[in-house]
């Protein structure tokens, strides 16, 4: 009789324990499905880098509000009256992981050369991002270093770990870098949310403070659709008419003007916009970033008109992607090599075109050498470049993920 009672009590206890465990699991999944905790948080330039900064993040709760709180200086707590609030422009997007919230915020009226702390969330306590910091551009800055990478293009979590490793090495090598230019093909399949989440989470520590300026690749815009790609970035809206907003734009930092072109659509109208954009800038150094190369391991014929514009407006450097191998051209003008000594010292010699290999898992076999190749190789290692520009010089240094420098050149004028 005693054993029988004991068995019943034990049975009830087991059932209760199972129910508690199931309940906890259910409430966990329930709350995460509705959570307004931010993820895929990234900062970008949108307006003047000295006085403004833009941010984008996602939430699983597609109806969550989007709030950004910021304060001057380094702070441990946001519980003081100096905290300023900005409301994000919030919308929703249907994804393969359900409908998610997209939040884009911009902070303006900032002081140049100043550190700010910020956090984002919906206002629900316990669901804020961790506090991050960013620094605005100093006034009158005459030098800058930034990082160039391309084709992270991952599919699996393992692929994106390699991308994270590349970026860690890039910042270890160029800790002074003020921003990143990513030359496109961020993920393999833009409809795969897991890919985007991995892309961001593996570099979260960097991109909550340092802007990543993306270029649209053929894996970012597919059949004139770039909605997933563009939903992740709050970018300058100064691009070409007819282009998907955020796929062509330009921005300045220190002595550099950077024009981002979209090789995937609206090429003709971008040619006109490119002329205007380059004509307008008073920056000494002009850099263009685009995905498919004009002069890489091969050439993308559709963008032929652009190279004439680069010549005319004396673009110094064109950052390219797509080929998943390393290439660097001689200075080119009119499609031919401009020999050293033909141009007076200190004058613009021609445009150099580079492809900084790939930053993720995928590599292509080395393509045939072309007459314009100064350097051309495939080392099957993730690579990155640091580009340092001063008043008088532009230094480009390409490294592999192990920290070995594989190419370097200096342009002066
Ligand atoms: Fe690619």
Q: Can you give a write-up of this model?
A:
The protein has 413 residues and is α+β, with helices and mostly antiparallel strands. The chain has three domains: 1-29; 39-135, Sandwich (Immunoglobulin-like), CATH 2.60.40; 144-412, Purple Acid Phosphatase, chain A, domain 2 (4-Layer Sandwich). It has seven helices and 23 strands. The chain has helices at 2-34, 157-173, 193-201, 204-207, 227-231, 267-280, 304-312; strands at 39-44, 53-59, 67-72, 84-87, 89-95, 98-107, 115-121, 132-135, 144-149, 180-182, 212-214, 249-253, 256-260, 285-289, 317-320, 326-329, 332-333, 336-337, 352-356, 373-377, 383-389, 393-400, 405-412. A seven-stranded mixed beta sheet has the order 12-13-14-15-19-16-20, covered by helices on one side. Strand 21 and strand 22 form a beta hairpin. Helix 2 (157-173) packs parallel to helix 3 (193-201). The longest helix has 33 residues, at 2-34. It is globular, with a radius of gyration of 24 Å. The termini are far apart. The structure holds fe (ii) ion. Residues 151, 153, 185, 217, 219, 322, 324 line the site of fe (ii) ion (FE2).
């Amino acid at each position: 009789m005693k054993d029988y009672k004991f068995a019943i009590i034990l049975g009830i206890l087991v059932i209760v324990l199972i129910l508690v465990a199931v309940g906890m699991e259910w409430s966990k999944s329930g709350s995460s499905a509705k959570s307004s905790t931010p993820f895929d948080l990234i900062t970008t330039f949108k307006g003047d880098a000295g006085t403004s900064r833009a941010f984008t993040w996602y939430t699983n709760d597609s109806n969550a509000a989007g709030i950004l709180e910021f304060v001057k200086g380094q702070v441990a707590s946001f519980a003081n009256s100096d905290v300023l609030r900005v409301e994000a422009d919030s919308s929703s997007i249907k994804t393969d992981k359900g409908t998610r919230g997209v939040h884009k915020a911009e902070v303006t009226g900032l002081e140049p050369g100043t550190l700010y702390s910020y956090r984002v969330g919906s206002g629900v306590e316990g669901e804020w991002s961790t506090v991050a910091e960013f620094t605005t551009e100093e006034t009158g800055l005459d030098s800058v270093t930034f990082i160039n990478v391309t084709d992270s293009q991952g599919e699996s979590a393992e692929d994106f770990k390699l991308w994270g490793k590349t970026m860690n090495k890039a910042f270890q090598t160029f800790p002074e870098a003020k921003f990143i230019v990513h030359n496109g093909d961020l993920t393999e399949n833009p409809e795969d949310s897991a890919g985007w989440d991995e892309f961001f989470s593996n570099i979260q520590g960097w991109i909550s403070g340092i802007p990543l300026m993306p270029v649209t690749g053929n894996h970012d815009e597919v059949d004139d659709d770039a909605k997933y790609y563009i939903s992740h970035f709050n970018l300058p809206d100064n691009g070409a008419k007819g282009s998907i907003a955020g796929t062509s734009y330009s921005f300045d930092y220190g002595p550099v003007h950077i024009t981002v072109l979209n090789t995937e659509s609206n090429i003709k109208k971008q040619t006109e916009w490119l002329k205007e954009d380059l004509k307008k800038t008073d920056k000494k150094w002009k850099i263009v970033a685009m995905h498919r190369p004009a002069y890489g391991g091969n050439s993308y014929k559709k963008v032929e008109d652009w190279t004439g514009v680069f010549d005319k407006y004396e673009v110094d450097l064109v950052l390219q992607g797509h080929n998943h191998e390393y290439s660097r051209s001689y200075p080119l003008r009119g499609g031919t090599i401009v020999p050293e000594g033909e141009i007076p010292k200190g004058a613009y010699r021609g445009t150099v075109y580079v492809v900084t290999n790939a930053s993720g898992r995928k590599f292509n076999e080395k393509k045939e050498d072309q007459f314009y190749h100064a350097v051309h190789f495939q080392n099957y290692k993730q690579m990155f470049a640091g580009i340092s520009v001063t008043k008088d010089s532009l230094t480009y240094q390409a490294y592999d993920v192990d920290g070995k420098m594989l190419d370097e050149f200096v342009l002066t004028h």
